[in-house]
Structure formats: C-alpha cells, structure tokens
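REQUEST
  id: r-88c1
  op: predict_structure
  target: LHFPL tetraspan subfamily member 2a protein
  payload:
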Amino acid sequence: MCHVIVTCRSMLWTLLSIVAAFGELIAFMSTDWLVGFPRTPDTVFSPQGATAAGEAYRPTLGIYGRCIRLPHLRRGVLCGPYAVHFSEIASRFWQATSIFLAAGILLLCAVAFISVFTMCFQSIMKKSIFNVCGLLQAIAGLFLILGLMLYPAGWGSDKVQGYCGPDASPYQLGLCSMGWAFYTALGGTVLTFICAVFSAQAEIATSSDKVQEEIEEGKSLICLL
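RESPONSE
  id: r-88c1
  status: 200
  body:
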C-alpha cells in the first residue's frame, strides 16, 4: 500500500531542490556571465578618421554563447552560441567548467525529479531516498564549486579580451563586469549544499513517531506540520 506522507520539511526540501536545479540550468544556458565594456554597433568613417555611431550598448558573453548588436540588424541584439563544437569554447578552463557544471546540473535535475515522488516512496533498495538524494546533492555541489573556481582562469583567452579589453587575464576582469548568471550559479551552489544538509531533516520528518502512528491507524494520506 502506498502511503502519501507530506510534511513541511519534506515539501520545503523538495521545493528547494527544484529551485536549485532550475537555477543552475538557467545560469549555465545564459549568455550573461560577463558584461563587456560599452561600445557601438557600427562605425562611421570620415576624412577626420573613424568615429563611433549608434547607440552604445554592452555585449554579454557566456560560457558557450554571446549577445552582440550588428550594424545591419534592425531587430536589436543577436544572441546565440559562438561555439558550435565543444573544442570551440573560449578556453580549456571554460571547457572544464562546462563539464563540471553539466555533471552537477545533471545530478541536481535527477534529484529534483526523484524528490517529487518522495511523498509516496521514502526508500530505495532499503536505503532512505532522502539520504541518497542528499549525498547526490553534496556531490553535485562539489562539481559546481570546481566549475566556478575554474571559470575565472579562462578570462585571459582571446575571446574574453575581445569583450573585456587587453587587460583581461586569469582572475582579472579588465573592463568587464560580472553578469547575473554567475551570481545565480553561485547562489544555486550554496542552495545545493543547504538542500544536502536539509535532506536529513526531511528524512527525520517522514519517519517520525507521529507518522508511524498514523500508518498503524490505516491512513494512506498523512499530512504533518
């Protein structure tokens, strides 16, 4: 018989797990990791020399994508991947970052999917599903930390210098500033470790004496604060 067990702590852990997974996924896919220095999309040439024309904007650069404004493009900013193949990513450090972030996000998405079913299934192969998921989240958090630590080491690549100026170097931004995607990935990493720790509380809440008492009374839907 399937017992649906819903507690505040288990539901909160499920919600936070889903938020962490989607936050990391959105950040990874975003082009707003670096915001370049202000520039104009076109240049007007005159006898006095070259002068910038058009409204200034700041291009953005992601791990494998970018947003730029082209002179002939009327619809505004063009966003898309600059790297068609994995080997075309700006630097080897960013390639390693992609691998670690992708591995962490894959684990987080798997945990987020499993967490939805923890209301009905609290164990897998005689192991607490919350403890297993908490372990996976801790491993995912380590992958994410490694990826974020390696990311600034790629700032010295030619691609980044084209957006941030020649002063850009490993762990030196040059004329760029950090975009929201980096901070989202960083916040998602912190939330991942919070979820890993909180999974133990979700386990305690769903295996408490009150839950066992209601199971013995024959209830199939158990809701506890």
